[in-house]
Design a protein that fits this description.
Blueprint (H helix, E strand, L loop, with lengths): L2 E3 L9 H5 L5 E4 L2 E4 L8 H5 L5 E3 L15 E4 L2 E2 L2 E2 L1 H17 L3 E7 L6 H6 L4 E6 L8 H15 L3 E5 L2 H14 L3 E5 L1 E4 L6 E7 L4 E6 L6 E5 L15 E4 L6 H4 L21 E5 L6 H14 L2 E4 L1 H5 L20 E5 L5 H4 L7 E6 L6 H4 L2 E4 L2 H20 L1
Parallel strand pairs: 5-8, 5-10, 8-9, 9-16, 10-15, 11-15, 17-18, 17-19, 19-20, 20-21
Antiparallel strand pairs: 1-4, 2-3, 6-7, 12-13, 13-14
Length: about 400
């Protein structure tokens, strides 16, 4: 595609230079000229009131996708145990499918995992596509991507959702490439556009400073990975569904990788995705010793212990304990933020908490803008006293 300027029509108004996102337009001798940085995005064409900027590009036409139907969810499992985000996505899939008047399907891949199909139906799946084979016992990228390629070609889904987990973030782009579809990663919101019926996919962009809404009009399935903890689980007791067994011809030679050993990461004492109460610390904790104070408070409350990106990078918490745009998303009943300034990247991971308590010695810290209750004070004074009071209360209640 080429873009050029019809010089005799240009009046040097600079509307195109302001519209160009790549700073590729410049004015010389009162006329606009296109530089090497032009990507042919077309922003300048729409901005020119004199129609002086032309292109040989032809408008894209939206293909006929009437043969694609269904909202699919990847039912991620390890060792026969479903990842919670899969159930969260089934809840959202029910809402999306209702708007489209389509059905919800779960894709269950593994070995001897058929018993999970009933759970998936109970939480919203109308159909479960079951692919069982000894070769699929443990997750391997090529194997699972190949199976998804077969399923998409055979059953033509409209929407395909995966959790933004370690597996989902690895698998989704491989599947996207194989089926020739776009992918929006780390979404925090999904909805159906009312006129065209396409999937609106919302995710943080530009370091979390804005929320971008993305639509895929030109390929199917519409694919997105969704951050755990941002969708609600919606059980449907007594629901009936269908299990469709798909037989794959996959061989070890086609996978070209072998698992030699599985090393399990030590899990936090409390799973943050399910925690009702979370105590979180930031830079204000100063060091690992400061986090010990937070750990004592968390134990007194029976809460999960979390932190900001700084806390993870300093080694005060494990990776699984990082809350924020580049960590996990949580939605507890109570979130206690200690020594956390409240950068937007961290707030993106905890904004859905039912109640937020902030402890910070800076009265102008941004965290107070989103907190339900705020304590202006040094966490090294406030947290030990709070822990002491809780422990005393517990002793009285236990007696």
């Amino acid at each position: 595609m080429a873009v050029w300027v019809q010089i005799d029509l240009c009046d040097g108004c600079r509307r195109c230079t302001r519209a160009c996102p790549y700073d590729a337009m410049e004015i010389k001798d009162g006329k606009v000229h296109i530089g090497d940085r032009c990507t042919s995005c077309g922003s300048c064409i729409d901005a020119c009131r004199n129609k002086a900027i032309l292109t040989d590009a032809k408008p894209r036409t939206i293909p006929d996708f009437s043969d694609h139907a269904g909202v699919w969810v990847f039912a991620e499992q390890r060792g026969g145990e479903l990842n919670r985000v899969s159930l969260e996505l089934l809840g959202k899939a029910q809402e999306l499918a209702k708007h489209l008047n389509q059905e919800v399907a779960a894709v269950l891949i593994g070995d001897r995992v058929s018993g999970l199909a009933d759970i998936l139906i109970e939480f919203g799946a109308d159909t479960v596509y079951l692919v069982e084979d000894a070769i699929l016992k443990d997750y391997r990228t090529k194997a699972y991507a190949r199976v998804f390629q077969e399923l998409v070609a055979a059953y033509k889904p409209n929407i395909l959702l995966m959790g933004a987990t370690h597996i989902g973030r690895d698998l989704a782009p491989r599947v996207s490439r194989r089926v020739g579809s776009g992918l929006t990663a780390d979404c925090t919101g999904l909805s159906i556009e009312p006129e065209e019926g396409i999937l609106w996919q919302t995710r943080p962009a530009f370091g979390g400073n804005v929320m971008a809404t993305i639509a895929n009009r030109f390929s199917r399935p519409q694919m997105a990975t969704v951050r755990p903890g941002v969708m609600e689980i919606i059980p449907t007791p007594g629901k009936k569904g269908t299990v469709v067994t798909h037989v794959t011809e996959l061989t070890e030679q086609q996978i070209a990788s072998k698992i030699l050993e599985i090393v399990k990461e030590t899990k936090p004492r409390v799973d943050l995705s399910e925690a009702k109460i979370i105590v979180a610390g930031g830079r204000g904790a100063n060091d690992a010793a400061g986090f010990e104070l937070l750990r004592e408070l968390a134990e007194a409350l029976g809460a999960g212990l979390a932190g900001t990106r700084v806390a993870f990078e300093q080694g005060w918490i494990p990776a699984a304990g990082q809350v924020g745009q580049t960590g996990v998303t949580v939605r507890p009943d109570l979130y206690i933020a200690c020594g956390i300034s409240g950068a937007i990247q961290h707030r993106a991971g905890m904004m859905d908490s039912k109640f937020i308590v902030a402890i910070n010695k800076d009265p102008y810290a941004p965290i107070f803008k989103v907190a339900d209750w705020g304590i202006v004070g040094d966490l090294f004074d406030v947290v030990p006293e709070l822990t002491k009071q809780l422990q005393t209360l517990c002793e009285v209640m236990c007696d």
